[in-house]
Design goal:
It contains nine helices and seven strands. By secondary structure, it is of the alpha+beta class. This is N-acetyltransferase domain-containing protein.
Amino acid sequence: MDNQEIIIRVATPADQHFAAIITDEMEASAKARGTGIAKRSPDYVAAKMAEGKAVIAVTKDGTWVGFCYIETWSHGQYVANSGLIVSPAFRKSGVAKSIKHKVFELSRQKYPEAKIFGLTTGLAVMKINSELGYEPVTYSELSQDEAFWAGCKSCVNYDILMSKDRKNCLCTAMLFDPKDHYEPKETQQHFEQKSKVYERLLKLKQSRFLSRLRGKSSARSEKLKSIFAAFFNF
């Protein structure tokens, strides 16, 4: 569908009837990718809408298109743009990028001093984040709020996270620090230069973690371990 027919805006209580559709699609998408996400209930998503801490995309005739919400941690020092999801019928239309930009803008308005971070298993989201000025970081640079990490318990990869003492997992951490950051042009250029490397390392990361859980080792993974460590602190 033509992207111009899609409206991207801050969600309101009037959008709460979409909550169950959104959480069902989040779960289905995670299963299809073979990756995990922290599960959220329809009530949780509805509350974000009521608080004005979410962005929704809909068509002019009221069809749900996509969604993302804001979470705060460490007394507002950290903000996460979480739960980005797009309806299958509207994927690869550029709407995910537009939603990410809108929720980033909303986060900066509501929490101008906060560090904005994200966890992702996807190269496409990494690319969008880089366009906004996010940089790949180690998990130690994220919020250490116990409530944040508790949210990972519903993720299928939680055992992996805990086996690494919360220092790493299948997700890649990215951070925007308003007080110390590169310009979006710089982070975007860096990503474009390293995108093939990131793609290989993301795949290797998943392979290494899953192999470790199965008690196996990979000769190829061992070869690239030093390179991998430079990017993801493995």
